[in-house]
């Protein structure tokens, strides 16, 4: 990875979010780059609550967060904490209020298992779990304080590096294969079927499904569909007139109706309604 991604894929109404919070992506230490997409940092100071929405990537995140909510007796501080956020299967909504900070680690799909090799990644899917469930207690203890306390951004990034490097990820050829296959799905729109993806590596469909369950956390069909929805969301975000029948064909759908169904089920509104709002 040469640098953190600059796109906003998956973020619903990214312009609105960025107008309310300070959002950045940062590059991890070189030894961590084979496994990570990037770090993502958010700080906010909001006069009124705001709900952000994300169509999750097929990625595990480690998230450190702290907030102070305004109450009747003034600002109420909350202790910072860290958690493992498995792949979210539905639209993720987060209410932000008062003063707060989040420091997140987005792993590449397939890149989390080398840091927590004891369990298949599917065990974390759809869950938020304490760091101690995934990592040795010695590494998890004090990690949230070290990451969240510094006001200096470079110091926070260094603390994230130190935490992950202390876990000593071991090279794993199966993790490398899973990451390569998901990258293929993400970058090649012609990759539309599970059996087609399996053939690129000479695997059976069942072997591919087992690999994805153990190292990605969801099945290959789910990954293909999720990246299609991310692309459709990007088209809708432009605010320009969109030929949704052409988009459906370009993304590999049998027809526009199937795209509309999947988009509505994931985002909550049809693509035409979302595009009008954007």
Automatic annotation (TrEMBL):
Pfam family, one: DUF6597
UniProt keywords, alphabetically: DNA-binding, Transcription, Transcription regulation
HTH araC/xylS-type domain: residues covered: 176-277
InterPro entries: AraC_XylS_family_regulators, DUF6597, HTH_AraC
Signal sequence, start to end: none
PROSITE patterns reported for this sequence: HTH_ARAC_FAMILY_2
Ribosomal protein is among the record's keywords: no
Keyword Acetylation in annotation: no
Protein name as annotated: Helix-turn-helix domain-containing protein
Species the sequence originates in: Streptomyces cavernicola
């Amino acid at each position: 990875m040469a640098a953190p991604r600059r796109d906003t894929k998956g973020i619903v109404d990214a312009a609105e979010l960025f107008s309310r919070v300070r959002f950045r992506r940062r590059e991890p230490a070189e030894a961590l780059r084979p496994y990570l997409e990037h770090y993502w940092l958010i700080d906010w100071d909001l006069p009124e609550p705001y709900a952000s929405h994300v169509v999750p990537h097929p990625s595990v995140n480690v998230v450190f967060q702290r907030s102070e909510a305004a109450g009747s007796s003034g600002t109420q501080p909350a202790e910072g904490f860290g958690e493992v956020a498995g792949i979210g299967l539905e639209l993720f909504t987060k209410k932000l209020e008062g003063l707060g900070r989040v420091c997140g680690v987005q792993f590449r799909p397939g890149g989390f298992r080398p840091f927590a090799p004891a369990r298949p990644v599917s065990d974390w899917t759809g869950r938020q779990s304490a760091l101690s469930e995934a990592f040795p207690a010695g590494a998890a203890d004090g990690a949230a304080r070290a990451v969240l306390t510094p006001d200096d951004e470079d110091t926070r990034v260094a603390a994230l590096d130190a935490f992950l490097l202390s876990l000593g990820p071991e090279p794993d050829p199966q993790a490398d294969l899973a990451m390569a296959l998901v990258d293929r799905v993400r970058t090649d729109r012609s990759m539309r079927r599970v059996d087609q993806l399996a053939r690129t590596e000479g695997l059976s469909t069942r072997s591919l499904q087992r690999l994805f369950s153990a190292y990605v956390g969801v099945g290959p069909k789910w990954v293909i569909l999720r990246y299609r929805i991310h692309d459709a969301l990007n088209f809708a975000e432009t605010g320009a007139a969109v030929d949704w029948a052409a988009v459906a064909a370009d993304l590999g759908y049998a027809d526009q109706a199937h795209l509309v169904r999947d988009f509505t089920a994931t985002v909550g509104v049809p693509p035409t309604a979302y595009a009008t709002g954007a």
